[in-house]
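Quick one: structure for this chain?
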Amino acid sequence: MSDEKPLPELRASDADRDRVAERLRDAVAEGRLDMEEFEERLEAVYKSRTYAQLEPLTADLPAAAAPAAAPSAAPAVPAAGAAWPGRIGGTGTSALAVAVMSGFQRKGRWTVPARFDAVAFWGGGELDLRQADFAQREVVINCVAVMGGIEITVPPGVDVDVRGFGFMGAFDQRDSPGPTEPGAPRVVVTGFAFWGGVEVKTKRP
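Got it. Here's what it folds into:
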């Protein structure tokens, strides 16, 4: 007879807790949880020691969508400035990302909504727009960084307007995106940083 413990009795790792926290953050972005429920469950996540304690926290949420199988050849990455009209329009993939003593990441092919809110409290976040589509010609990314940091990466040719305010913190545009390309979107970065920072940088796909 095996002495192996049933799965629910096994001790959960930090990675297990982070995965549950990420699912809860997605549920907030999808409108399945309000902020009060999110905060209560997130606190329970980081107090959990076993799988049995973690499982109920997402039991009433649908499973996260499985990633698509990798094709035999890597898909072509849209070049900066290529086919901008085909990358503007549609519905935003998500409108909110929250990191509380943790992190968030949006990258690859996703659609930036007309307004995206990013919150980092004792945590960090990454928004990579190099392969993104845009719901509108102009999008606003509102960042709140409190003792945390948010990094935004844009491709060359995008019109970037940084308007955020830092108090013992900073909104920093490290690179120049260069001349604005015809049809390229305009990204307005605004918000507030307190003992934290928001960094906008330009990098090719």
